[in-house]
Write a structure and sequence with these properties.
CATH class of the largest domain: Alpha Beta
Number of strands: 10
Order of helices and strands: EEHEEHEEHEEHHEHEHHHH
Strand content: 15-25%
Structural class: alpha/beta
CATH topology of the largest domain: 2-enoyl-CoA Hydratase, Chain A, domain 1
Number of helices: 10
Strand order of the largest sheet: 1-2-3-5-7-10
Largest sheet: 6 strands, mixed
Shape: globular
Radius of gyration: 19 Å
Helix content: 40-55%
CATH architecture of the largest domain: Alpha-Beta Complex
Distance between the termini: 15 Å
């Protein structure tokens, strides 16, 4: 039985819940909850977000995670007040972005449901997720250049890998905001939907993924994620080993037998 104490814990900056799914495992929902400052990403907020993601990852009843903000802003950037007077040595010693690296180690898929502003750290947080469902009103950008700095939580790396050097260079060196449609066409956004349904669409996608065999979902995510860093030869080898590994799972036998017998598979998650 999974430890559910994290669901009833007290959080200062986020709302946490789980959503029932008739077709499979539940969906874990994290909502950034600093609306008065457009969900600015202060250190305490990120500690709560990452810790909750790790709890969802360990929870056997959760199959997928959705991260969202509110209609006005997913997150409009870092909390500049925390950094305005910081020195280079203080930033180096605090190493505040090290916590962000833990998001990459979450095995379950993470979907960002984005409406309004996703700027600076907000854009970087969305890009740390595996998929982005964006409302038509969503605006993406890396405006750090206007503060005399550059992105520090993955913006120069993830954005370039997602949309290519030319477009990433323009966004990072000008600080311009881009529309959800622009980012969909560039390859950053998974889907653009009506403003009224962006969160519903993300949750439905989460439910669909959570209804699939859990081990295959996790290994599929890992293979796709690793493809960005591996040569084609190494990537193909990594994929093949994981494909063969899944033949050791109960779900592989259930899925193939169900296909042959023309019935719906009943996944065990192992």
């Amino acid at each position: 039985m999974s430890d559910k104490s994290y669901l009833s814990a007290s959080y200062n900056n986020i709302l946490v819940s789980e959503i029932e799914n008739k077709s499979g495992l539940k969906v874990g929902l994290i909502q950034l909850n600093r609306p008065d400052v457009l969900n600015a990403l202060k250190v305490e907020l990120m500690k709560e977000v990452v810790g909750t993601m790790e709890n969802f990852d360990k929870d056997e009843e959760i199959g997928c995670i959705v991260l969202t903000g509110n209609a006005r802003a997913f997150a409009a950037g870092a909390d500049i007040k925390e950094m305005a007077d910081a020195t280079a040595i203080e930033m180096q010693l605090s190493n505040q972005f090290a916590r962000w690296d833990k998001i990459r180690k979450v095995r379950k898929p993470i979907i960002a449901a984005v409406s309004g502003f996703a700027l600076g750290g907000g854009c970087e947080l969305a890009m740390s997720c595996d998929m982005i469902i964006a409302a038509q009103s969503a605006k993406f950008g890396q405006p750090e250049i206007n503060l005399g700095v550059i992105p520090g939580a993955g913006g120069t790396q993830r954005l370039t890998k997602a949309i290519g050097k030319a477009r990433a260079m323009e966004m990072i060196l000008t600080g311009r905001m881009m529309s959800a449609r622009d980012m969909f066409e560039a390859g950053l956004v998974t889907r653009v939907v009506e403003d009224e349904v962006y969160l519903d669409e993300a949750i439905e996608l989460g439910k669909e993924i959570a209804s699939k065999p859990a081990v295959a979902v996790m290994l599929g995510k890992e293979c796709v994620s690793r493809s960005l860093d591996l040569t084609i030869e190494t990537g193909l080898e990594f994929e093949r080993k994981n494909f063969y590994l899944l033949f050791a799972t109960e779900d592989k036998f259930e899925g193939m037998n169900a296909f042959v017998e023309k019935r719906k598979a009943e996944w065990k998650g192992r």
